């Protein structure tokens, strides 16, 4: 028999889905049968699979020990830098991601921000994977490895559900600043179709849909131009793979320093003169509802952006 006491960060979930996350090797149909036959009980009572768990609920599960075994989380030793935490409360954490940092791990990468968030909260005593086995703190937005900027982290299940829903509904606004080169873009919302090429790891942008393509929208809020360089304020209306980088290149104004979609000659000049080895694109502002107020988190523009932009005056 296994006993689980529901943590406050795990409440609100259906009991059947909770169990399926906790015991990943247990078939969902088996969980439903166990609920019907009272092999899974909540507070000593028989419940249906759609029962919503509350903090402090005691779940008793009667099954063989080998079926109850679950893999422990492995998160390495990397921890977020406290100096780069822009905002934090009991539910969320906003972090300034550096260039070349990854949000999620891969087999070839031992350090990533998700593991760093988990270890940071474990160190603070705010997260214990031994008691919260079906939830792990994470970031709900994505940034390319070579793009710096703000990452939105959630600390518990309740805030994860809340802010992930706000993200899907477009109520969390993501603003970027980009240094572009080429044709001066005009203010306004640009719509197109987007398709990720998994073979080349690039994005196709076009005005006519093709099989698998999804509609996108990118809004240019403000533009400051200096000859062929343009410092742009951008609102990401949809969040597709390489969207800003590919969309700006489609508009004949690629991001400076972008080795996939950019101007190779300009990139080489900027690298030689200014030591820029990554795209000059930053996710520098998040705006989202918090209670009755609108929360605005903004970071300063790195000096390299204005240094490159001003040089040609």
Q: Which structural class is indicated by helix and strand composition?
A: alpha+beta
Question: How many domains is the backbone divided into?
Answer: 3
Helix and strand succession? EHHEEHEEHEEHEEEEEHHEEH
Mean pLDDT: 89
Distance between the termini: 74 Å
Percentage of helical residues?
A: 10-25%
Give a count of the beta strands, DSSP E runs of length 2 or more.
14
- Per CATH, the superfamily of the largest domain is Pseudouridine synthase
Tell me the CATH architecture of the largest domain.
2-Layer Sandwich
Q: Give the number of helices.
A: 8
The global form is elongated
CATH classification, class level of the largest domain = Alpha Beta
Which spans of ≥5 residues are poorly predicted at pLDDT below 50? Answer: 64-73
Q: Radius of gyration, rounded?
A: 23 Å
Strand-residue proportion: 25-35%
Major pleated sheet: 11 strands, mixed
């Amino acid at each position: 028999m296994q006993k689980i006491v529901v943590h406050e960060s795990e409440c609100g979930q259906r009991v059947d889905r909770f169990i399926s996350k906790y015991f990943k090797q247990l078939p969902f149909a088996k969980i439903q049968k166990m609920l019907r036959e009272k092999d899974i009980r909540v507070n000593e009572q028989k419940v249906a699979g759609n029962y919503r768990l509350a903090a402090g609920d005691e779940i008793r599960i009667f099954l063989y020990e080998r079926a109850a075994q679950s893999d422990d989380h492995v998160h390495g030793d990397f921890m977020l830098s406290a100096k780069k935490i822009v905002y934090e409360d009991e539910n969320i954490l906003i972090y300034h991601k550096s260039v070349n940092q990854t949000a999620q791990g891969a087999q070839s990468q031992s350090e990533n921000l998700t593991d760093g968030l988990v270890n940071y909260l474990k160190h603070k005593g705010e997260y214990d994977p031994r008691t919260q086995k079906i939830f792990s703190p994470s970031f709900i937005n994505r940034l390319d490895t070579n793009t710096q900027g703000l990452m939105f982290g959630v600390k518990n299940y309740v805030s994860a559900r809340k802010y992930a829903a706000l993200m899907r509904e477009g109520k969390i606004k993501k603003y970027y600043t980009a240094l572009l080169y080429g044709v001066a873009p005009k203010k306004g919302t640009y719509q197109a179709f987007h398709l990720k090429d998994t073979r080349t790891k690039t994005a196709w942008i076009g005005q006519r849909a093709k099989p698998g393509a999804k509609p996108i929208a990118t809004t240019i809020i403000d533009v400051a131009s200096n000859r062929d360089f343009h410092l742009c304020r951008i609102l990401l209306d949809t969040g597709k793979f390489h969207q800003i980088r590919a969309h700006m290149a489609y508009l004949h104004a690629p991001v400076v320093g972008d080795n996939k979609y950019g101007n190779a000659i300009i990139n080489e000049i900027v690298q030689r003169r200014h030591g820029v080895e990554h795209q000059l694109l930053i996710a520098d502002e998040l705006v989202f509802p918090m209670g009755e107020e609108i929360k605005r988190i903004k970071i300063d523009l790195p000096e390299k952006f204005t240094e490159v932009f001003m040089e040609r005056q």
